[in-house]
Amino acid sequence: MIAIISAMQEEIQALLNKLQNVSTIEKGMRTYYVGTLFNKKVVLVFSRWGKVAAAATTTQLINDFDLDEIIFTGVAGGIHPNLNIGDIVIGKDLFQHDLNASPFYKRFEIPIIKKLFLETKNPDSLIAATTIFLQNYHCYVKLNDAQIFDITKPKLVFGDIASGDQFISSLKKIAKLNKQIPSAICVEMEGAAVAQICYEYEMPFSIIRIISDKANDNATIDFSKFSNTIASNYALGILENYFA
Ligand code: ADE
């Protein structure tokens, strides 16, 4: 069984609409939707925002379901100048940008685990599926919606992600992050928490992030508009190819 997590219902709604033979399990104020998606047995859940919520949901999934892998899909703020709204980031190394237990541990070091970041493994088939999705992108995303965000030719980048319990909407904060974690190309609030739990339980995982905003002054407006319209159609298109 494959678990699919999003932080918000909006990011997963198109998948829920396609889910068949659905049964639900309520636990810890979350609903786990079990069913079949594109002929694969899946469990869908929205974790709610932030690292604690994502870590708790991931742990619950691993303990209660017979999982082969976990896929997190959601939106992110682009902090690399070449990333535009509508581009897709598949996570490589996951950093917790708000983790700082110095002087006991190095900046960003996860205590005991002794790592500054956690990496995803075997992204090749997800990258291949996402590449096919981008070739057929207009089948999933309405032209009108794409035009709102000026999305013409969205691209895929396999790159590093910085997660933290903060919504980033300032150029000053972006500059700080660029300096602290130069390889990070986007920011979000859950990925590195999922990565840590999956590392600890030896569970394969992937992080898919669609750029909803550029983490600047306009971020709150872009983020809300993008999440409500396009985000989950991307997830649907990518996963349809991934499961094929
Ligand atoms: N998720 C989407 N956009 C984000 C941003 N600007 N900061 C943090 N998380 C996000």
UniProtKB/TrEMBL annotation:
Q: Which InterPro entries match?
A: MTA_SAH_Nsdase, Nucleoside_phosphorylase_d, Nucleoside_phosphorylase_sf
Q: In which pathway does it act?
A: Amino-acid biosynthesis; L-methionine biosynthesis via salvage pathway; S-methyl-5-thio-alpha-D-ribose 1-phosphate from S-methyl-5'-thioadenosine (hydrolase route): step 1/2
Q: Which GO terms describe its biological process?
A: L-methionine salvage from methylthioadenosine; L-methionine salvage from S-adenosylmethionine; nucleoside catabolic process
Keywords for this entry? Amino-acid biosynthesis, Hydrolase, Methionine biosynthesis
Q: Care to name a GO molecular-function term for this sequence?
A: methylthioadenosine nucleosidase activity
Protein's recorded name: adenosylhomocysteine nucleosidase
Which lineage ranks, top first, belong to the organism behind this chain? Bacteria, Pseudomonadati, Bacteroidota, Flavobacteriia, Flavobacteriales
Q: Which GO terms describe its cellular component?
A: cytosol
Indicate the segments forming the Nucleoside phosphorylase domain, all copies.
Answer: 2-242
**EC number(s) reported in the record:** 3.2.2.9
